[in-house]
Design a protein that fits this description.
The chain is mainly α and about 280 residues long. The chain has six helices and two strands. Helix 1 runs antiparallel to helix 2, helix 1 packs parallel to helix 3 and helix 4 runs antiparallel to helix 6. The longest helix is centred in the N-terminal third of the chain and has 84 residues.
Length: about 280
């Protein structure tokens, strides 16, 4: 029977040995052939082991590269998304403030309280996205204190499978890390944008009784030019007339109701995004 991986010297056609010297020569030749055969086996096994070891090391190097690329890439994309929310919320808040300054005034046309809902949710979007940027991290896969690389060259297939599994778990865990804060910030930004029109929509109004100030007397001061006195008197009349006009103010009851409903709706959406992402 031929041994695995080589030939059997005993099965070769050896000449019949009749003398002791011939028998010794045959035994020696067989021994030398066995030594040569075993040396070839060891060399082949060594080459195979070396190839397996080098392949495993190459895979380990590629895994380390992919590990870093995945971690850095996911964080960069997530951080870019969070910064986009911050930039958008800040820009909208700045533009919104300018529009309110043009449309409303403290004395003649005060801003309704419901107009504060938009900057409130825009600010919440900035806070949530900042929270994500400050605390988001790649967590180790659950149940793995360290990456199971295995002894190089022992079992290349098992090592590759283990590393691929850990890589998938790493991506999954990184995708879930503090993602609820980022989702909630996007919802808060959307609510803030949806509430931009609230200050400009009428939900009913009440009238305030004007202060009936006395009309100014038509007098000309001593040494005062008549034309200047007339201009002064006209301005005084305008001021008194403006104060005597009936002012329209938002209805307090409806204002509170609108703020309560809109605030609860927007807050509920943000909380839903927050807690749903934490499951």
């Amino acid at each position: 029977m031929t041994p695995p991986g080589g030939f059997n010297p005993d099965e070769l056609g050896w000449p019949d040995a009749t003398t002791a010297g011939e028998k010794e020569a045959v035994v020696k030749a067989k021994a030398e052939m066995r030594v040569a055969r075993d040396a070839d086996r060891l060399a082949a096994a060594s080459q195979e082991q070396k190839a397996r070891f080098e392949a495993d090391l190459d895979n380990l190097q590629q895994f380390a590269k992919d590990y870093s690329t995945v971690g850095v890439g996911i964080l960069e994309r997530r951080q870019a998304g969070a910064r986009t929310v911050q930039t958008a919320a800040t820009a909208v808040a700045t533009l919104y403030t300018g529009i309110l300054a043009l449309a409303f005034s403290v004395s003649d046309n005060p801003l309704p309280a419901r107009g504060l809902l938009t900057p409130l949710f825009l600010g919440l979007a900035v806070v949530l996205s900042t929270y994500y940027l400050a605390w988001a991290k790649i967590e180790r896969p659950e149940g793995n204190a360290q990456v199971p690389v295995g002894p190089p060259g022992e079992d290349v297939t098992a090592n590759i499978v283990d590393r691929a599994r850990v890589l998938v778990e790493l991506v999954t865990e990184a995708a879930r890390s503090k993602a609820y804060a980022l989702r909630a910030s996007v919802v808060a930004l959307a609510v803030g944008l949806a509430y931009l029109a609230l200050p400009f929509v009428s939900f009913g109004a009440s009238t305030a009784a004007p202060a009936l100030a006395d009309w100014p007397p038509a007098t000309v001061g001593q040494g005062e030019v008549l034309e200047l006195a007339e201009l002064r008197y006209a301005e005084q009349v305008k001021e008194v007339a403006a104060g005597r006009q009936v002012k329209t103010l938002p209805d307090p009851g409806r204002e509170v109701l609108v703020i309560a409903v809109a605030g609860a709706l927007g807050g509920g959406l943000v909380l839903a995004a927050w807690f749903r992402g934490r499951r």
